[in-house]
Amino acid sequence: MQRNRSTKIIATLGPASGEQETIAALHAAGADLFRLNFSHGEHADHLARLNAIRAVEQAVGTPIGVMADLQGPKIRIGTIQGDGVDLAVGAAYRLDLTGQPGDGQRAPLPHPEVFAALEEGMDLLIDDGRLRLLVKQLGDDYAECEVVTGGRLTDRKGVNLPQALLPLGAMTAKDQADLRFALEAGVDWVALSFVQRPDDIAEARRLIAGRAAVMAKIEKPAALCQIDEIIELADAVMVARGDLGVELPVEEVPALQKDLIRRARRAGKPVVVATQMLESMISAPVPTRAEVSDVATAVYDGADAVMLSGETASGGFPVEAVEVMNRVAAKVEGDPGYRAIMDAEHADPEATSADAITAAARQVAETISATAIVTYTTSGSTALRAARERPPVPTLVLTPSLITARRLAVAWGLSCVHSADASGFTDMVDRACRAAADRGIATSGDRLVITAGVPFGTPGATNSLRIAWVP
């Protein structure tokens, strides 16, 4: 199935979309990769959905990526008496390690690491920032606070600490158990939540040991202090705007989104924009105009992929949400201004033979008005360099590795085919022409620009470029 756009779409699966029939409809509507959210659901639920994805993949003959999104460390208030308490602005309120249910004067915060990281003058945000407390006095096991933004406090509400670097790894015991399960099940990507430092990525890579690619979710301000190092260690980046919008002033998020996309594109790493993209479609069949503009902005910024969360996981219109996102992305990419932006923000190639060949392929394709670029790859690195170029024509990727083909489903403009490697130049051209014709990318008389590594089958050895005519 050849898409009419280069920006990819990620759809989250959940109660509204877990059946194979719905997954097939989501893929047909435009979903290129599916997200399994391990913050919700049991392992059996995720396994059933993954098996359904693989069945759809087999039926359509197109590699489909699967992402396991780990929950990460969640800091929450403990239990509160009754149905909650109302906190008034200016009132004193205490958070402590005492296990007693909270009331109008205090509440349990059963996380010793929080009190170790807090300092006087810091903010605590509760319930996605709906309540704000200012730390006035600290002890080893308590924080005396002033209510800055009041409201109702109920059980188990999440707590954000935007100014603190928490002494926590990005993976809890639950995450490690979920990770073992996900890797055994055969996911292609692992999204790591609440990354704060490069060491979080390094630890995840050690545990994953190459069995899946690693996506760093940027949702903590602390991560921004070492963002280039985090991008370098990760295989991809997700701009997770939900928690960023809680822990940072909301007006800073749009510029930050653009900056993260630029940094990831320069590094040649796929970048995903996520959270609340078509939020109203959880309960409505059409999005707001603001949401459409939000999706369009991410596409204009050059994101590799845009992601749907609750819209497809639990919403009443999952297929319609994907259809809307598909139409918006296609429309934006058809705008002459989009191509001008991609060309203006084009990153310079690195001083390697693979980058030189990939950059040359883009230039040659433009010069001779080729219909497509065809890239042979084993590890996927050459294909990612091709995506980094943001060429004006489709990029068809031929790879003998189904694992590689599935992982590349998140990358801009790549249409992947699982195929045996070429045995020589003649076979290389024949395979490329057949694949382009079979996918509806090219017809007889069209020209293709083909890149490959010689000797064939050698990972990371892209060193040849060939122009071919489709017979």
Keywords:
471 residues; alpha/beta; TIM Barrel; M1 Pyruvate Kinase, Domain 3; Pyruvate Kinase, Chain: A, domain 1; 3 domains; eight-stranded parallel β-barrel; six-stranded mixed β-sheet; elongated
Summarize the structure.
The protein is 37% helix and 22% strand. By secondary structure, it is of the alpha/beta class.
Give a verbal description of the structure.
By secondary structure, the protein is α/β, with parallel strands linked by helices. It folds into 3 domains: about 10-70 and about 170-335, Phosphoenolpyruvate-binding domains (TIM Barrel, Alpha-Beta Barrel), CATH 3.20.20; about 85-160, M1 Pyruvate Kinase, Domain 3 (Beta Barrel), CATH 2.40.33; about 355-470, Pyruvate kinase, C-terminal domain (Pyruvate Kinase, Chain: A, domain 1, 3-Layer(aba) Sandwich), CATH 3.40.1380. Helix content is about 35%, strand content about 20%. The strands form 4 sheets. Strands 1-2-3-12-13-14-15-16 form an 8-stranded parallel barrel, surrounded by 7 helices. A 6-stranded mixed β-sheet has the order 6-5-9-8-7-11, with helices on one face. A 5-stranded mixed β-sheet has the order 19-18-17-20-21, with helices on both faces. Helix 5 runs parallel beside helix 7 (about 225-235).
